[in-house]
Structures are given as C-alpha cells and as structure tokens.
Amino acid sequence: MAAAEEPAKRRTGSSRATGRREAGERRHRPSKGPAWAMRTASEQLAELIGRSPDSISSLKPTNDGWEADVEVLELERVPDTTSVMATYRVSLDKEGDLVAYERTRRYTRGQIDRRG
C-alpha cells in the first residue's frame, strides 16, 4: 500500500481578497474617490440636520474637494408619494470635512421634474 500523501495546500487567493498582507507588502489605503465622498457627505449632513439621507442625486469633484446633492425625507405622509422631500447641496473640502450645506429645493416624492 502506498504511503498516505499530505493533502495539497489550499490556495486562499490574493492577499487583497482576504485582507491579509504578505511580508513587505504595502497597506492599501482607499482613495478619496466618489464612493468615499458620497458616504462622507451623507454621514455629515445626517449629523447636522438629524435626518437620514434618502439618496445622492448628484456628485462632482471641485477644485476644493467635492459637491453633492443629497435627497432627504423631511416629512413622511400617507400615501408615500405625498411625502415632502428636500435637496441639500453639500460641499466637502479635500479632507472630507463638510464646509457648507444649503437646502436648494423642496418637493413631494411623487413629483417629476418637468424640463422642456
């Protein structure tokens, strides 16, 4: 009878996929890109106005950081299509700190933009 062989070592994939680093490998830091800017704008606006953002309808880089339009449920009504929504314009600096915000629009959830 043949001697029992050692089981083959299982490959676990790249270190990036598992979150483990190989010796000497640099730590990957997430870039401050669009997804980061969206999360940062939402979190900071929620802290200031006390309401959770519903969505981000616009995001663009600026010379000073990022600018986002954040949609927020301001007044919940029944039926849902009559709930009052608001758009807030949020400005972030390059470090992600909120430097300005303003409410630019209020509308009912069921309202459609009419642009000619």
List how many beta strands DSSP finds: 4
Largest sheet: 4 strands, antiparallel
Side-by-side strand order of the widest sheet: 1-2-3-4
| Helix and strand sequence | HHEEEE
Cα separation of the termini: 84 Å
Give the overall form. Answer: elongated
> Could you say which structural class the secondary elements and strand pairing correspond to?
alpha+beta
Radius of gyration: 23 Å
Tell me the β content.
35-45%
Report low-confidence residues grouped into runs of 5 or more.
Answer: 8-19
Mean pLDDT level: 82
Helix proportion: 10-25%
Number of helices: 2
Describe the protein in words.
The chain is an alpha+beta fold and 116 residues long. Helix content is 17%, strand content 35%. The protein is built from two helices and four strands; from the N terminus they run H-H-E-E-E-E. The protein has helices spanning 15-18, 34-49; strands spanning 53-61, 65-75, 84-93, 98-108. A four-stranded antiparallel sheet has the order 1-2-3-4. It is elongated and about 40 Å long. Mean pLDDT is 82; it is low at 8-19.
Question: In terms of topology, how is this protein built?
Answer:
Blueprint: H1 15-18, H2 34-49, E1 53-61, E2 65-75, E3 84-93, E4 98-108
Antiparallel strand pairs: 1-2, 2-3, 3-4
Summarize this structure as a short list of keywords or feature phrases:
single chain, 116 residues, alpha+beta, four-stranded antiparallel sheet, 17% helix, elongated
Q: Short description, anyone?
A:
The protein is of the alpha+beta class and 116 residues long. The chain is built from 2 helices and 4 strands.
